[in-house]
Amino acid sequence: MAVFRVERNKGYTVMSNHHLRNKELSLKAKGLLSQMLSLPEDWDYTLAGLSFINREKIDAIREAIKELERAGYIVRSRERDEKGRLRGTDYVIFEQPQTPPVSDLPILENPTLDNPTLEKPMLENPTLENPTQLNKDISRTDLSKKEKSNTDISNTHSIPMEKKGIISDRCELNRQIKADNALLRELKAAVKKLAQEVLHSLPELAKSMEFLRQKLLIFCYQLNHIRTGKSVIGKSVDAWNINLNRYSEVVDQIKETKRERTDLLAEKKELPFWNIPRKNELTARIAELTELLEELQSEKAILLDNMDCTDGKDVSKVRKKVALMEANLKELDEQEQKYSAELETALAEYAELKTQGEQFDPVELHDTRQELRPEMEQTAVQRVKEKYGDKYSHRTMDDSKRDVSRHLDEYAESQEIRQIQREREYQQRRQNKAKQERKKQDDWER
Length: 446
Fold this sequence. Notes:
The protein is mainly α. It has helices at 27-38, 47-52, 58-71, 145-148, 170-196, 202-270, 276-306, 312-356, 362-388, 394-407, 410-445, and strands at 44-46, 74-80, 86-93, 133-136. It contains 11 helices and 4 strands. It has a 4-stranded mixed sheet with strand order 1-4-3-2. α1 packs across α3 (58-71) and α6 (202-270) packs across α9. The protein is elongated, with a radius of gyration of 36 Å. Mean pLDDT is 76; it is low at 1-6 and 101-169.
């Protein structure tokens, strides 16, 4: 059996064993991280410098750094100059991987409208890889507040809306709107017929008021359903636009940087050999532009990946998709306005029925309506379930019930009924007491 002996000399480095025992890391990544941890904390070095003290070339060093970054041992943050242009990149190295932040893109319980959400939501200031410069700042305990705010772009994620059950076909949205309009016409006809009826008895009035309340419940559900879809699509459009706008900025900045670099190279080539100060100045600026160009190309690649694109043609498809989503939002706005107007009309009809109810006993009318309400509400729920199928949301229905109660001011009405009942009970007790006193008086006189 082979025996490996370790002869310890001078120049030790104390570090965590975490990365050495991490089976997910390659030997190359483990070795590079160990070497980084052994260097002085204030040492400012480059990828070329790391390549110089190792056998590997710069590309191999860069791949190892990417692996460590994906594993959480390295966290990057970007620097910008006073004009907002991209400059250097700070790499913070950790002995143990940092827990990546989780994307908080809102996911609704039962979204039902089309258009996919952002596959990989883009952060406001995405971190980028700097291919040439590493500013090492080792933290062996916890992140500072500034470091904790930096988010690695590789950690952004979300799920396409199609996988969440959201309708992704434009035609499906049109079919849904058509079905909504058919139900709306049916409800309008029922409300109009109800308004034309002359109600002569209390049971007829109670049934008519609860029937109209049932229609209001359906109206409110459809309005909440439309607003939920608008919220989902609106947030998705905003997220897509963040990527698209930044992509356009990066493309323009790449063109500008390339143009300036080309001009400087031409000037340097035509420069006399004796003008050394100007040549040194041009060399430094060209190196700076080369580094900036590599960073911009890296950011462009990240943006394309976030949008599931491979080139500019795919970006054009994304723009068309976003335009389609915005058109859907416009249609949903029109639907919302239509249902809001019908809701107001139905509320006005309900107010007329309530005025007719003033000729009847309020407590008796209230009790009769309460007996009919459970069945009426169940009918409304059943109709909505039949229409929306597995897209039906109990939460949306509960919200709709609260909206109806708020529109009809049912809490104040119930308080008023309780007050009437208390007054009647008080009057009844007084009458009973007066009868008992008269009876006692009559018995005494006898």
